[in-house]
Write a structure and sequence with these properties.
Elements (H helix, E strand, L loop, with lengths): L3 E8 L5 H10 L4 E5 L9 E6 L2 E6 L8 H4 L4 E4 L12 H19 L5 E3 L10 H10 L4 E3 L20 E2 L3 H13 L6 E7 L8 H14 L5 E3 L2 H7 L9
Parallel strand pairs: 1-2, 1-9, 1-10, 2-5, 6-7, 8-9
Antiparallel strand pairs: 3-4
Helix pairs in contact: 3-4
């Protein structure tokens, strides 16, 4: 078994995912995309500062009838039906948001939905109560936060799964990648990157830097490259058998 694995996770199902996927596939990388089925084809924008640039982000959602084609080589996961703050909801509302989104995505893809990313992903946006409600009342077995560990250890909890790093953390991203590549592992180690693809649109140089990062971490014989679910299966972190 390969003891090192790399996986990516991207939220919201936006148009920029198409360009992102082209880059990932150029280097044999695999990702999980977390979608809100209740927001397909919604066109919104917001301003912010990312990668050192001030920008207006166009986060236009991909239409439902394009989902299968766009994500055909990657994993589709849930991001809730309409992106609410889950801890602000009752248990019943949490169950509805997650189960209905998974059901809709399964109807579109014909595949079982195994995981999700918490809308917001940190602090007030996710907690143990919500994790327990989802674990005990849906078929979802893992849920990703946005709290960076900067560690390669496997998550202690798959339902409150903290990633290694955000793609925005450029100051440490390459250094961590090189550390992971040089690591001689005899126990499972995971390099888990998450983000929003629309953030890469702030400047063409950011896309270029991201592609260099993908090239850097790709093509290693001692690394398993997979979607979130594939990596967890590779390491035996679940006992699911259905596809």
């Amino acid at each position: 078994m390969k003891y090192k694995a790399i996986t990516f996770s991207y939220d919201d199902g936006v148009e920029q995912d198409k360009r992102l996927i082209e880059i990932l596939e150029r280097y044999g990388l695999r990702a999980t995309f977390n979608l809100n089925s209740g927001l397909f084809d919604k066109r919104t924008s917001h301003s912010g500062r990312v990668f050192g640039f001030d920008a207006v982000f166009n986060n236009h959602r991909i239409p439902g009838d394009e989902i299968c084609e766009v994500y055909k080589n990657h994993e589709i996961a849930s991001h809730s039906l309409t992106h609410p703050i889950l801890p602000a909801l009752s248990d019943e509302e949490v169950i509805f948001q997650m189960s209905e989104d998974a059901k809709a995505l399964e109807g579109i893809t014909g595949k079982k939905i195994h995981g999700f990313a918490y809308p917001g992903g940190v602090g007030e946006y996710c907690n143990q109560r919500v994790a327990d409600v989802i674990e005990n009342n849906t078929s979802l077995y893992y849920g990703r936060t946005v709290k960076s560990t900067r560690s390669f250890e496997l998550p202690k909890s798959l339902m409150l799964l903290d990633p290694t790093i955000s793609h925005r953390e450029i100051s440490v991203r390459e250094g961590l990648a090189r550390e992971f590549l040089s690591l001689e592992a005899d126990t499972p180690k995971l390099f888990y990157v998450w983000g929003h693809s629309y953030e890469l649109d702030v400047d063409e140089s950011v896309w270029t830097d991201f592609e260099r990062f993908c090239e850097l971490i790709s093509g290693r014989d001692d690394i398993f490259y997979g979607t979130n679910d594939e990596v967890f299966r590779h390491f035996g972190l679940n006992n699911l058998t259905e596809e």
